[in-house]
Design a protein that fits this description.
By secondary structure, the protein is mainly alpha-helical. Helix content is 79%, strand content 0%. The protein has one domain.
Length: 148
């Protein structure tokens, strides 16, 4: 368990902080609160939850097996969760559009690998100071403000 705590960096602290700020802003407004409730109802629809549950069970089984060989430990938990969210679950949602889109599977695979690679770099390889995260958010907020 101490492996997990030692792997937490400013990046995770900043992510939790900004998620809390975002959630607080959403919950303050009545319209946004009702919108969040609708999104959660739609997400927990059995059509969506069932495949995600099967994918989570499958991933847990794989983790158990590779853990038995000594190829996985709790120190890999953060990377595993990031990979599951960015690659495995996004792939499940992209498969639905594979029939409609031109380029099909190869284009979807390229897009998913790009997203997974960028997010893995941001979350695992490059650590940004907490102050830089704050300054980046302020700069983004100032860039998108509308002139009065």
């Amino acid at each position: 368990m101490s492996d997990i705590w030692t792997s937490i960096t400013n990046r995770e602290i900043a992510a939790v902080f900004w998620f809390g700020v975002f959630l607080a802003v959403v919950l303050v407004g009545r319209d946004t609160r009702q919108g969040l409730a609708g999104v959660l109802r739609a997400f927990f629809n059995p059509i969506i939850v069932l495949p995600l549950t099967f994918a989570a069970i499958y991933a847990s089984g794989e983790i158990y097996v590779v853990g038995k060989f000594g190829w996985w430990s709790l120190a890999n938990l953060k990377t595993t969760v990031v990979w599951l969210v960015t690659f495995a679950f996004v792939t499940m949602f992209e498969v639905v559009s594979a029939k409609i889109r031109k380029g099909g599977l190869s284009r979807i695979t390229r897009e998913i690998l790009t997203v997974a690679t960028v997010l893995t770099f941001i979350t695992e390889l490059q650590s940004f100071p907490l102050v830089s995260a704050w300054q980046g958010c302020r700069a983004g907020h100032l860039a998108f403000q509308r002139p009065i």
